[in-house]
Prior knowledge:
The chain is mainly α. The protein is built from 14 helices and no strands. The protein folds into 2 domains: 2-60, no CATH class; 73-282, Clc chloride channel (Orthogonal Bundle), CATH 1.10.3080.10.
Amino acid sequence: MLLGAGAAAGIAAGFNAPIAGVFFALEVVLATTFSTTSVSVVLLAAVVAAWIAQLCLGGQPAFALPTYEVRSPLELPLYIGLGLLACGVSMAYTKSIKLGEGAFLGQIKGLTWLGRLPRWLCPAIGGACVGLAGLQWPQILGVGYDTIEAMLEDVEFSLSLLLILLVVKTIVTAVCLGSGLVGGIFAPAMFLGASAGSAYCKLLATLPGINTIIAGPPAYAMVGMAAVLASSAKAPLTSILLLFEMTRDYRIVLPLMLAVGLSVWLVESYAGGAGENLNLHQMGLDVNLNNQGKKIEPLLDWETSLNGKIAEAISNNEEKLAAKDSEIN
C-alpha cells in the first residue's frame, strides 16, 4: 500500500498529473491486489504531492505540449500504423533491457567475461559506453526531457537523426540498466515514443496526397509517447490519462486510445500475458510476494473449550471402536 502511494505521489508531482498518478499505482504497482483502503491512501498521497508541487513549482505540466491539431477525420486510421510501430519499439526496448542485464551477468554467449568482472567495474564500463555515444549524439544523454520538448516544439529533426536516436537510446538505456547505473524505464520510453512518432509522421509526409490531411510531427510524437510508454510499462490507462492531463485537449483522446490500445494488445498477444513488469523488476520487487496471507484470528475461550471437548469425544470414540474391533477379531 505504501509502495503504491509513493508511486502515485511521484507521478502526480513529477508530471503535475494526479489522476494519472493514481491510475499508475492501481494499474501497475498494486494491480489486482488493491482494496478500498489502498485506493484512499493512494488518492491522498497523489493529492498532497500534486498540491505541494504546484505550490513550489507552479501549475504547469512537465512538458510545454503544443495544441493538438486535427486537420481531417480521415487522419484517425493512420494512427493504427503508429500503434504497430509503438508495439515494435516497445518489444525491442524491453528485450534489449533484459539482454543488457544478461550480458553483464555473463549469461550472453560471447560476453560471459563480463560476468567475471568485479561488480564495481560494471558501471564504469556502462558509463564509458554512454559517454562515447553522447559525444556523437548528445541528445541521448540525461533524462531526455530537453530532447522530447524540442520534438514537441517542432524543432527540425531529420528522419535519419530520429531513427538513429531511436536505436542509440534503446541500446544505451539497456547498457545503463544492465551495468548497474542509476536510471529508470519511464523517461526513456517517452523519449523512444516521441522519436518514433516524429519519424512516423515524416515518413507519412513523403507519401503523395497525405501531407494535406495529417497533423505535424508534434501531434504524432505525443501519441507515440503514450503508446510506447503504455506497452512497455503495462500501463495503458495511465498513459492515456497522463497525456490527456498534460494536453488538456479532448481531441487527442481518440488517437491516444487507438494507438495505445493496439500497441498494448499486440504486445500482450506476443508475450502471452506473462511479460514481466519492468517497473517492479527494476526495483527488485514482486508485489505478489509481499501479499501476506489472511491472518488467522485466535480462538475465543468458548471456542477453545468446545474444540477440546470435540477432540476428546473423537478420541474416546476411536478407542471404543478399536476395542470392538479387537473383540470381533
